[in-house]
Amino acid sequence: MKIGKLSWDDLSKIIDNNKGNLRDEVRIRSGIGEDCSVVSFGEYECVLSTDPITAADNNIGRLVVHINANDIASCGAEPIGILVTVLSPPCSQLEDIYNVMREINEEAKKLNMEILGGHTEVTDSVNKIVVSCTVIGKAKAGKAVATSGAKAKDHIIVTKKLCLEGTAILINDYYDLVKGVLTDKEIKEAKAYVDSLSVVAEGKIAGEFGVNSMHDITEGGVLGALWEVAKGSSLGFKIYKDRLPISEITVKLCDLFNIDPLKFISSGSMIITCSDGYALVDKLKNSGIEATVIGEVIQGAKILVDNNNEFNVLPPERDELFNISTENIIKNLQNRR
Hints:
Layout: H1 8-16, E1 26-28, E2 37-41, E3 44-53, H2 60-73, E4 78-88, H3 94-110, E5 114-122, E6 130-140, E7 155-159, H4 164-173, H5 175-178, H6 184-191, H7 200-209, E8 213-216, H8 221-233, E9 236-240, H9 248-257, E10 270-274, H10 277-286, E11 291-298, E12 302-306, E13 309-312, H11 326-336
Parallel strand pairs: 4-5, 9-12
Antiparallel strand pairs: 1-2, 2-3, 3-6, 4-6, 7-10, 7-11, 8-10, 9-11, 12-13
């Protein structure tokens, strides 16, 4: 099989046919694009999400905290604790595990989260350190927001810049290749993207504002995330390419690596849909969070508008990060000289 997420069709079959016994306490349950489950406990709801880090080699402790806490924030809930599983190959050093846990501890403190427990093991089943986490959050009863709650005519909002996580991964994992196309100032800025991967702040603001759906943008990029929102909500979307917030640094790197930024891993950005997107954008900007209305939720079709031409959007097969060929990058650099 190809590296990356399973296709939407394959994943749907697995999820739909393997749900165990359905419980009355579960208000939001597993489904395509639904990264969190919500369990009712009287006055409060427990919000749970789990994800590993597999595509990056550096900053994996930092990344794993934020991709999981972001799922909780996308429900409008507060992340309160994290469970950590670390699988390490025999070739790794004890210091490697210490460094991963140090990063997790530092990021958990920033988000006021406690490390609740987990599992650490050395195994020859992996060839590099793999970290998987489960984050537990809480929300007032009935307040958690589902990915599948988008409504026709909703505005679609994106927070911050797209591809923050992907750009940070390229800078850190392929530094010797990218330093030839970026200035020192641009490299420093791109490395700092890893400090902007949390969407907890915008999740809280949007939850209080009152929105119909939220979804953090991870593997598959903005198009993948929009597909998940649309599929879960049984609707479509129309977005405008010239409105998509992408930094010039990311554009340069995507050109070098032959990557489509619209299908590139983008933790740090959130998709939000609501009836008055421009009012929410103003509210977010007043709190220092960049936000942009990129289109609207529509019936049926999934459309990208580029130079007044409309294109039907197909679901990304896998994230662009898994399509990188170092050999092709080197050839690309040689052709530039």
